[in-house]
Design brief:
Elements (H helix, E strand, L loop, with lengths): L1 H6 L3 H12 L3 H9 L3 H11 L4 H9 L11 H17 L10 H6 L5 H16 L1
Length: about 130
């Protein structure tokens, strides 16, 4: 995201407004505008900087954990879930938009349970 911001200041605020108005996911819009998304750019930078393969995979697949290699699927699922909790807490996504396989992996079976996790994390963070 820092690369996008340096190339185009305030791009993410502008993208968010357009995506909300048009009801289009940010990842799809990033791909349309830039030809790739921030996860792919982050993975390319991580490769150049010789990061471990598992971190490169997590960066690349954190928006589509179902495509992550088995060797990095668990960590990718954790990062994906954390990202979804943040977006959900900000009101940017609905519970129904969260990958059900990832929810099942963490034994999350209802929106109430998910909301409880998000609330506890927010309370802990705010302390």
């Amino acid at each position: 995201k820092i690369v996008f911001e340096n190339a185009r200041p305030n791009i993410f605020q502008k993208l968010e407004v357009i995506c909300q108005k048009k009801n289009v996911s940010k990842e799809i819009f990033e791909n349309l505008v830039a030809g790739c998304n921030h996860g792919e750019i982050g993975a390319c930078i991580a490769e150049k900087w010789n990061f471990p393969p598992v971190l490169i995979d997590v960066l690349r697949y954190h928006h589509n954990p179902e495509n992550a290699p088995e060797s990095s699927k668990e960590l990718t699922n954790i990062i994906y879930l954390a990202d979804m909790i943040a977006h959900y807490s900000e009101g940017l996504i609905d519970f129904a938009q969260i990958d059900t396989d990832v929810l099942e992996n963490f034994n999350i079976t209802s929106e109430e349970q998910f909301q409880g996790i998000a609330d506890r994390l927010s309370t802990s963070f705010n302390r």
